[in-house]
Amino acid sequence: MEYFNKIVVIFVLLSWLTHLHPSSAGSNGDRYVRDACSVTQYPDLCIHSLASFSNTAKQSPSKWARAGVSVTISEAKKVAQYLMNLKKRRSMRGRNRVAISDCVECFLDTVDNLHKSLGVLRELNGQTFNTQMGDVTTWLSATLTDEDTCLEGFDGQKGEQVQLLQNRVSNVTYITSNALALVNKLATTGPESPTDP
User: Fold this and answer.
1) How far is the C-alpha of 69 from the C-alpha of 115, rounded, in Å?
2) How far apart are CA 19 and CA 103, in angstroms?
3) Please, is 85 exposed, middle or buried when counting C-beta atoms within 10 Å of its C-beta (0-12, 13-18, 19+)?
4) In angstroms, rounded to a whole number, what is the distance separating the alpha carbons of residues 187 and 192?
5) Listed residue (144, 149, 153) closest to 173, CA to CA
6) pLDDT in tens, 55-107
7) Span of the secretion signal (predicted)?
8) Domain boundaries, given as residue ranges, for the chain
9) What is the rounded distance in angstroms from the CA atom of residue 194 to the CA atom of residue 175?
10) What is the percent of the chain where pLDDT is above 90?
11) Could you give the dihedral angle defined by the CA atoms of residues 184, 190, 193 and 194, in that order, rounded to the nearest 10 degrees?
């Protein structure tokens, strides 16, 4: 028992010391993600969803844009799968059944547009940068439109299942909005040189 108590005391002491003196990498990482997310409409969500990219993206607008789109793809795929399962179960009736079918189509388009955007962001070229940014912002804007169209199908509808669906789709809409803001930041800063971090 005494051995166990010593281990607990050491653990508590180490935790306390670590809390008092956070590593500089942690504070820089926190600063990087906060700086990147400062241009977004939903900065808290941005920080939460992109914090793991801090040490790799650092101060690189192109890496933050890619990270934002990557996270959006992941979340959109989850919601697309959720919507397809709802459609398959046929648990919704009437107007909601039509709306869920429309949502599935919207989210298939969403995932496609997000993949095209990420593909372009991975192949940025200084000579075609403005055209590439135009394409990416067009696809991300179309993604937001698709997500809004999905939500509009459930306007005025009630029920726990509808509320859950609206919350999940809205969350992806917020993440998409953040990704678009990060892409817009990249578009205004211009292409990075190959030596940039």
Assistant:
1) 8
2) 45
3) exposed
4) 11
5) 144
6) 999 999 999 999 999 999 999 999 999 999 999 987 777 888 899 999 999 99
7) 1-25
8) 28-189
9) 28
10) 71
11) 40
If you compute the radius of gyration of the chain from its CA atoms, what whole number of angstroms results?
Answer: 21
How many angstroms separate the Cα of 70 from the Cα of each of 23, 190, 195?
27, 20, 23
The string of pLDDT tens digits covering residues 145-189 is 999 999 999 998 888 989 999 999 999 999 999 999 999 999 999
**How far lies 154's CA from each of 76, 97, 149, in Å?**
18, 10, 9
Dist CA 187 CA 190 (whole Å): 5
Rounded to 10°, the helix 129-152/94-122 angle is 170
State how far the Cα of 163 lies from the Cα of 197, in Å rounded to an integer: 42
Closest CA to 87 of 105, 61, 73, 74: 105
Helices (H), 42-197: 43-50, 54-57, 61-89, 94-122, 129-152, 160-189
CATH superfamily of 28-189: Invertase/pectin methylesterase inhibitor family protein (1.20.140.40)
